[in-house]
Amino acid sequence: MCSVISRVKPVQRALALTLRLGGNTERSCYALAESRRLCRGVSAGVEPLRAPSRSYCSRMALTEGLLFRQLFESESSTYTYLLADTETKEAILIDPVLETIDRDLKLIHELGLNLKVAVNTHCHADHITSTGLMKKRLVGLKSAISKFSGATADILLSEGDKITFGKHYLTVRNTPGHTDGCMALVTGDQSMVFTGDALLIRGCGRTDFQQGCPKTLYESVHQKIFTLPDHCLVYPAHDYKGQMVSTVGEERKFNPRLTKSLEEFVNIMNNLNLPKPKKIDISVPANLVCGVHEV
Predict the structure, then answer these.
(1) d(CA 68, CA 218)
(2) What is the pTM of this model?
(3) Which of 18, 178, 203, 212 has its CB 3.0 to 4.6 Å from that of 197, i.e. a possible disulfide?
(4) Own/partner pairs, 77-80, CB within 8 angstroms, 24+ separation
């Protein structure tokens, strides 16, 4: 089956995959969506996916038994990710934002999930995490962050640690450079990676504050993220252009910064001249104490 599919055109290949996965509704929907995203303009009957103005976005998971939702906060352009085991209903939440705590808790309740861990990919400078406040509203919820972040949390994570929920888990890969405490979270089958601010879609996190270092970031992305399989889906902590997902293969080939040499990358990052995040003076102190400082 695979050898036959590899020889047909992109749209036909995606549709063939859809038929092949017909018994699994989520995977069928995903294959059809990917045919639209990857093959824009090939067929007059297939419209390209456009990024709507949104505060909530549902994405499908390829991994069997994994529930996945991609959520959006418009002010800081932050993505929050909800993952759960469909059998045990155990769930984790990645990079929750204070302004959307009610939305997130409502969704968790509607889906009948038991949220075990709320994890931040790093100490954010542009928004306050909802982790601390969420712990007060959900009994038994644990907070998690890298031990190199300097922040307080119930769980301090290191390279290779696993965050489990049901039969699924995410593995920690340290990716310093944007901050010392940045980490990427990889699903057990390496089909998805949550890259925080280290790797963005066709971009990367800035390196001019909070222990930022362009050389370190370059090495982190190339050694810890670009070594994942080409098909691994990339889900960043932010996007400012309406892009929702990429792949490791795409970013390794097309990322305009990280395809450069190390010397060129360092020069680019040292000359961005960006204004500092509007909320940095309140977000960083709050996030160092799990987001509960003066909230």
Answers:
(1) 29
(2) 0.80
(3) 178
(4) 77/238, 77/239, 77/240, 78/124, 78/126, 78/127, 78/237, 78/238, 79/235, 79/236, 79/237, 79/238, 79/239, 79/244, 80/104
Share of the chain above pLDDT 90, in %: 69
pLDDT of residue 63: 83
Of 245, 238, 253, residue with least CA distance to 97: 238
Three-state SS for 36-99 is HHHCCCCCCCCCCCCCCCCCEECCCCCCCCEEEEEEEECCCCEEEEEEEECCCCEEEEECCEHH
Q: What is the mean pLDDT of the chain?
A: 84
Q: Mind listing the pLDDT tens digit for each residue in 101-149?
A: 999 999 999 999 999 999 999 998 888 999 999 999 999 999 999 999 9
Instruction: Name the CA radius of gyration of the chain, rounded.
Output: 19
Cα 256 to Cα 251: distance, rounded to the nearest angstrom:
9
CA–CA dist 258, 131 (Å, integer): 31
Task: With CA atoms as reference, report the closest residue to 84 among 173, 166, 171, 11.
Answer: 166
DSSP state of 246: E
Gap between the Cα atoms of 61 and 166, Å rounded: 16
| Token pair listed for 284 | 């960083």
pLDDT for 194 beyond 90: yes
With residue 156 as reference, give the H or E element that holds it.
strand 155-157
Beta sheet of 192-196, edge-to-edge order = 162-165, 168-174, 183-187, 192-196, 233-236, 246-247
Is the Cβ–Cβ distance between 21 and 27 less than 8 Å? yes
> When comparing pLDDT for 12 and 178, which is higher?
178
